[in-house]
Design a protein that fits this description.
There is one protein chain. Helix content is 32%, strand content 28%. The protein has helices at 4-23, 26-48, 208-214, 244-263, 284-294, 303-311, 328-337, 356-362, 376-393, and strands at residues 53-60, 64-65, 69-78, 84-85, 88-93, 97-102, 105-106, 111-119, 124-128, 131-136, 143-148, 152-157, 190-196, 218-223, 229-234, 267-271, 276-277, 318-323, 343-349, 366-370. The radius of gyration is 31 Å and the shape is elongated. A hairpin with a 6-residue loop joins strand 10 (131-136) and strand 11 (143-148). The longest helix has 23 residues, at 26-48. The chain contains nine helices and 20 strands. Mean pLDDT is 83; it is low at 170-191 and 390-394. The termini are far apart. Strands 17-16-15-18-19-20 form a six-stranded mixed beta sheet, sandwiched between helices. A four-stranded antiparallel beta sheet has the order 6-5-10-11, covered by helices on one side. The chain has four domains: 4-46; 53-157, Immunoglobulins (Immunoglobulin-like, Sandwich); 174-187 and 225-393, Rossmann fold; 189-223, no CATH class. With 394 residues, it is of the alpha/beta class. Helix 1 (4-23) runs antiparallel to helix 2 (26-48) and helix 6 packs parallel to helix 7.
Length: 394
């Protein structure tokens, strides 16, 4: 493809030919033919020269939160036999922008490196690359753009706020209250019960005598104290939020709780309506935070039906709801799960307290409500102090 300079050269050559016809000066014709030949040669050069390059991209840090800056270093190595003239190298980060840098020449076996920073806002999962390399001839009359290298994923986690301690909830023994309890992960060692085999179960836990008796595989269910398990439910229904800012505050609240639970030794599952992260995953914390990075508002989501199915696979423990203004469906979902999750905390984002919160409080749920510009850390700490004061006064 001809560049603006190439088209200008063709335009000038045409003008020179017209002047030659009018004036008869042979130098005008020679100059016009030279410019035309140069433009054609440049076009052929960029069409024929297919560079051989290797692209290596490094992203630092690997864990990026909303508002952080990520440093990207892209190295382009010429692995061909010929030099590459005037390359322009561009990395595009979808929805966040692009970075472009140029070099005069890349010799065979040598490399050129470009470094740039990305302001990671808002949260989300972004694609970096593939790298676009634009080549031109030495006179820059023509150019060719190719895509090369693999695309990388940039996961921007939601902002988290530090949470301290844990509110006293119904069914939790205050004597076990600690900043960092020592809990077992992914099942204890004490035999609890038997259940039917499910795809993915560890075959080492098959109870062979019972399996032979029932003629079907039975799995030894190992007991894990409920204090070490938690389920975080993020309400992604669009109709329950007053504004997108309220939803982002809820996402940050869920991320803060997930981080606090993992740091405190809980086996934590996360449900966001469209994605689910389990403590049984190989890397449960990154999986949960990635789900929160990608979550979006949903319209028409039936939270009772979905949570009813989730109940079949739940392990019990602490239930933490995070959402906007709670409605009747949200309350029904909590009541449905109350048998398996007797300890419940509700985090609500709203400019004004909702009357529905009273229903949750009567059901023994610890409620924490903040506006979009409020602080989860302060509200969580206040809830912890208030529940401890209530326990001490009895």
């Amino acid at each position: 493809m001809l560049t603006d300079r190439g088209w200008a050269a063709l335009g000038a050559s045409l003008a020179l030919v017209v002047l030659w016809i009018a004036l008869g000066e042979i130098e005008l014709l020679a100059t016009g033919l030279f410019l035309t030949s140069a433009a054609v040669a440049a076009w052929l050069y960029t069409r024929i020269s297919e560079p051989s390059v290797r692209v290596i991209r490094h992203l630092r840090p690997t864990l990026v939160r909303e508002g952080d800056q990520a440093l990207v270093r892209t190295a382009v190595t010429n692995i061909g036999r010929w030099s590459i003239f005037n390359p322009t190298i561009e990395d595009e980060v979808l929805e966040l922008g692009s970075a472009r840098f140029a070099a005069a020449r890349i010799k065979p076996g040598s490399a050129t490196t470009g470094t740039y920073q990305i302001l990671c806002r808002p949260r989300g999962i972004y694609q970096v690359g593939p790298t676009r390399i634009t080549l031109s001839d030495p006179l820059r009359f023509a150019q060719q753009t190719i895509e090369t290298g693999e695309a990388d994923r940039l996961v921007v986690y939601p902002t988290v706020e530090p949470l301290d301690d844990f509110p006293v909830v119904r069914g939790r023994d205050p004597s076990m209250h600690a900043v960092r309890p020592e809990f077992s992960h992914r099942g204890g060692e004490d035999f609890f019960t038997l259940r039917e085999y499910r795809t993915g179960d560890d075959l080492r836990r098959v109870h062979w005598p019972s399996s032979a008796k029932r003629d079907e595989l039975m799995i030894r269910q190992l007991e894990t104290p409920w204090q070490s398990r938690a389920l975080v439910v993020l309400d992604a229904r669009e109709e329950c939020y007053e504004s997108p800012a309220d939803f982002e505050k809820a996402v940050r609240g869920a991320a803060s709780v997930v981080r606090h639970l993992f740091a405190s030794g809980f086996d934590t599952d996360l449900w966001t309506g469209t994605a689910q992260a389990s403590s049984r995953d190989p890397d449960p914390f990154p999986r949960a935070m990635e789900a929160l990075a990608a979550v979006k508002l949903e319209r028409g989501l039936d939270i009772r039906t979905v949570l009813g199915a989730l109940r079949q696979t739940g392990d019990g423990g602490v239930l933490i709801f995070v959402g906007g203004r709670p409605d009747a469906d949200f309350y029904s979902a909590q009541q449905m799960l109350a048998r398996d999750y007797p300890a419940t905390i509700l985090l609500s984002v709203s400019s004004e307290p909702s009357a529905r919160l009273i229903d949750f409080q009567r059901a023994g749920v610890v409620t924490i409500s903040v506006p979009a510009d409020g602080s989860w850390s302060a509200a969580w700490l206040e809830a912890t102090r208030n529940t401890w004061s209530t326990v001490s006064a009895r």
